[in-house]
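Q: Hi! First time doing this. I have a protein sequence and I read that you can turn it into a structure. Is that right? Here it is:
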Amino acid sequence: MDAVTAAPALVSLRAVGKTFPNGLVALADYDLDVREGETLTLLGPSGCGKSTALRLIAGLANPTAGSIDWSAPHIKNNIGFVFQDATLLPWANVFDNVFLPLRLGGLTREAASPRVNEALAHVGLLDFSHALPRELSGGMRMRCAIARALVTRPALILMDEPFAALDEVTRFKLNDDLLALKRRLGATIVFVTHSVFEAAYLSSRIVVMSRRGGAIIDEISIDPAIPRNDDYRSSKTFADTCRRGSQALRVALEQATP
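A: Yes, that's right. Below is the predicted 3D structure, encoded as structure tokens:
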């Protein structure tokens, strides 16, 4: 048992259900532990409840059944969230977009500047602090969104398909950048994706979900000590993980309701 597998749960979802007002059941009797220090990926087809689970953990939605239990109250209020779209304020420069959470928390610009600059340095955008979003590439805009999530120094980072709209080269680069950030900061990450390859590259654990109420089809552990690089992408471990993830996704699709 590795250190991450043995780590305590930061948050546990127990028999969680989420039914929307139109009657759509996104999650039913859903159980999940998010363990301290891991990179947990929720993998599954569209409509399986991945994003719903993320929003419930973030407190952006409430469950209609079950419970969400936190190991410590402060963690619940110390979450960073990165959406699929960068959601930057178009009229604000990079610095001010990253400053936003701290400004809303009552910090002055002067007091927040060291933390904003630290977050920008982490994502390689310190030299672009005065640029507007329209002056950035798609990958740079997503880096800015990640810096905004990091600036509060969260214990838990939730990422909802943040790289889905990017080209493959940029996506690979940001995958590597995210792993480097993980090594530096040590935060726990929950990552949502449709991509088996991305899940196999980033994760220490993959949970494969079905469209039928978010039922968990498979859970795949990957040794976090294995270096993630080009050699890993051509390794047997990576190939076996992708194969198992693909097989689980096939089962998930077969179980989908018509």
